[in-house]
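Sequence and fold
=================
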Amino acid sequence: MFQPEAAANHTYHRADFKVDGLAQERHASLPSPASARRVPDGEGTSQSERDWAYAIRHLKQGDDPDEIIREMACYRSADLYDNNDPTKLVAARKPNPRYYAQHTVTQAMAHLGITHSKPSRLSAELVTSSADMEPSR
C-alpha cells in the first residue's frame, strides 16, 4: 500500500529494492570498466586498437614519430580485408588517413609522456632549404 507522506520522510535502504536473480546474473557477467580498458600490445580487437598498439610499440622503440605517421597513414589509406576471406572487410579506409595517423601518434606520445619528437630528417631539410631561400640583403 502506497503512503504518499511516508515517501518524503522515509529513508530507503538497499534491502528495500528487490532485484531479480536474472538481472544480477547479467551484471555479474559484464567485464569491469578497468578490465575493459586493458588491451595488451598488438592484441586489440579493432583495427584502431591495433594502430594504437603499433604507435605505442614503435614510440617505445625510439622510432621517429614522423615515420610512424607516414607508415600508419599509408596503411589506413586503403580498405583492409581478412587474410582468410578476401571478401570480408576488416576495416574501411580512413577518410583522412594522415589526420588519423597524426592524431593517433600524438595521443600515444602524450600517453607515454613524450612531449616533443626529435627533429626528423625531413623537417631538418625543410629548415635548411628555407634558410637558403632567404634573399640576401
